[in-house]
Every structure is written in C-alpha cells, then in structure tokens.
Amino acid sequence: MHFLVTNDDGLHSPALLQLRKQLLPFGRVTVIAPDRNQSAMSQALTLHRPLRIHPHGDDVYSVDGTPTDCVLIAFHGKLIDKPDFVVSGINHGPNMGEDVFYSGTVAAALEGVLQGVPAVAASLVTRKPTDFAEPAAMVGRIVRHVLERGVPEKMLLNVNFPFLPKAEMKGLQLTRLGSRVYQDTLVKKVDPRGRDYYWIGGEDPIWKPDPGTDFHALHDGYVSVTPMQLELTDHKAIAAMANWGLTLD
Questions:
Q1: Which domain holds residue 156?
Q2: How many domains would you assign to the chain?
Q3: DSSP character for 128?
C-alpha cells in the first residue's frame, strides 16, 4: 500500500510528519505538499507557468503549486510509484459545510478520488498552535477502517476534529455538510492614500445549528465524518424538469 500525504498549509506544517508516522505501519508513505501556504485554493491548477519540484529527504517533496498540482504530480509526474490512497491534511482550521468548495485540503482529496483511489481529507477546528499528534492518530484509525471495509467509488471522507484532548471528545458522528450563515464576507477598507481596498474573509463563520450536520457534531464535542460523493447531478430535478418543455426556441 502506497499513501500520498499532502495538504494546503504547506510542507512545513507539523501535521504532515504526524500523518506520515501514523500511516507508515500500513505501507510506504510519500509526502508531496505545496512549498507555501495554499489555503482556499480549491481545485486550482497551475497552467500558465512550469512547476518546480524539490526533494527534502526520502519520499518528501515540495511543489511550487497548489494542492491539486501536488496530487497530479504524484499520479502523472513519473516522480514516484502511483499512490493507492490519498490523505490530505491535517488542515489548521475547519473545513465544514459550503467551505469544502473553497478548501485546498478537500480539493486534494477530491483529486485523489478522481484519480481512482480512496481519499480522506482531515481538518482540526482551531487556529491555535498544536502538534497534531492526537488527530493524526485518529486519522490512522479511520484509514484502517477504510482499508478493511472499503468505500464506494467517487466518494471521499471529510473529517473534522474538535480542538479537544481525545479523552474529552464524546465520540464520532457520521454527518452531512452544514450550512454557513454568510456575513461580512467582504470587508471594505481605505488605504493611507484614500483608495478603497477589500479583504475577503471578515469575521469567523457562523453556522446554522442543524442536528446531523458537521458543525452540530463539532459543537457538541464529536469528531465529524462526512462522506462526500462526486456525483453532483440532481436526478430528481432532471425528472421534474422533463415536463418543462425546454426547447431552443
């Protein structure tokens, strides 16, 4: 079994080494990660310049590109043997609800699924300094279950850990994606020369406290595991819209 470990926080995140330590008992582990922070890059590709790859010891590489670039290089760059499993993270901050569409962490796992292998995206719900040791150990246990039981094709697991000691966590819940309340997502400021500029981000997100969602589980002290399928087609809508009589005229 050959694992690819990547992230969007960059090669120097301590989470990478912790994940590698937990996955080595299952087989070979290769780390290919961005050479700098690439958060919120979603599934962006670097198309208009060459990519540079730098080795950092045995089976560790950095790429001056996005998380998705890293996964594509692993599968098609003739740099390593093709991976059998992609683990992305552990992200320093949550990836819940609609934010998964912006997340470079989730995008890297998604690219692994597109390449035909199982994938797990993992995030720790804090911005505070941490060594990631306990969540990495829990990722290892989740990976073991995936190896033993398998997952459907075109599906990834999006895992979020509360920032709590394991002894204080209440358990694990299988969840659906929550829904974010968007406010102050674009903040207008004025520079010293009187010109307007904007920051995307604003305040920390607020989530609807709906039972069964990833946010609700994390709020109550549980680890959230959300199975995400790549099939986005609304098949019920296709059936309902068949009676619209849509034409080109």
A1: 2-178+208-244
A2: 1
A3: S
